[in-house]
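Homework help board

Subject: predicted structure for assignment chain

Our instructor gave us this sequence and asked us to write out the predicted structure in token form, then describe one feature. I got the tokens but I'm not sure how to describe them. Can anyone check?
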Amino acid sequence: MAITRVNFGEWLPDQPGVIGALTNASNVYPRLTGYGPFPQEVDYSQAASETLNNVVAAQGTDGTTRVFASGATKLFRLDTTDYSLDDVSATTYTSTTKWRFTQYGNKLIAANGANTLQSYDMTTTGNFANLSSDAPKSKFVTVVRDFVVAAHNPDAKFRVNWSGIGNETTWAASATTQADYQDIPDGGNIQGITGGEFGLVLLERSIVRMSYIGSPLIFQFDNIARNLGCYEPNSVIQWQGITYFLGNDGFYACDGTAISAIGAEKVNRTFFKDLEESLLNNMSAAVDPERNLIMWGYPSINDDYRILIFHVPTKRWSYVVTTASGVAASSTPTATLESLDNYSASIDALETSLDSRVWLGGKITLAGYDGAKIITFSGQPKTGQIDTSDLETGSSKSMITLAKPVVDNGSGSVAIATRQLLNETPTFGTYTAADSEGRIGIRSLGRYHRLSVQPSGVEWSAAIGVELEIQQAGMR
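My token output:
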């Protein structure tokens, strides 16, 4: 009997389930071919003295990487001798929003929208302090060329300030230092800013490019998009010169000139339907550089926290249900065997493999926070689920008699939902695990068949598809 291979294609939840696209891709991430396993959350730090709202890492010129975390009223530094989070605040802060960070030379600069910009000197082991006496209070901070740039002053939410050229401590407007500010009055409040060779200012109703032109104007501001802005500040993330963000109608990417609607007719409608909008300010964004993923964490209407995943090379999507309360991009401090003894009861009890980049100093990695703890996504694979579209083999009924999950270095379990008419709700039966030969016996009769596959195996690397034996059945 002929075997039919059904490969796992693109997940398109905004589209009907009869067009050939996947109807579910959960707890996995897209690859060029198929989907890979997404790892479980693992506690990385001890609990801080308050709930965390961001994680960041910075590396000094001496090569030492330090990990920091933030809460509403405190800033913390990870102690790699016992993985505690030590309070390194300059004072008790008054933030009602999450902290945002940027590095300028040996200074890690932090902004919370309520207090003067804070600075941590990476050449010392002290506390944060005011960046300078005239540094602004700003919600966002980044670096554009040789300038520290701050945006969204509490008294002028459409203002962009920049420091003196090559001097992060000088902020008074001066033709000599080139420090100055610019108000952008026609786009609403500033929702985020990203840097590099040029700056990108995301407002509520426009996107503005910030280009250095020298004295006397210093920076030129060009509106590259009107009537399109950023819906949520916590959605803004930059990777490899591209800025990603959530607009009023979905997800976008901007390279400073062109803007691409990366979620249109793919995931946008599903995202807004699934989002618990009253908790939108709990959104988070991060990059997973190892897997080339842009990730948005958000609270869902199902009373859980989810991560929407965009795979940059293939422009495909998936999602994860997580116990974390936020995602963040971080780097790793070097771990010694002595410090690992303090981290875990024993080397054998570690939930994260010793081969993981989590233990390699200075390597960018996907992190996050769960309540008062820093976490990493470095455990065993989560239980993934990949659902096919409705498979129709002709105008009459057909029977599936055999299924074989195609999972590289692993196996899988399969459940099936069968219906005769498209107005019937597809309901999956119980999952059946493949036998030692990778086969699952099934007897499912109907016109439309939808397969759900759960890949299995500690080391499985790619779920490719499912092979089926299908018999045509006559109508009575």
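Reply (TA_rk): Your tokens look well-formed. For the description, you could write something like this. The CA atoms of residues 73 and 94 lie 6 Å apart. That's the kind of observation they're looking for.
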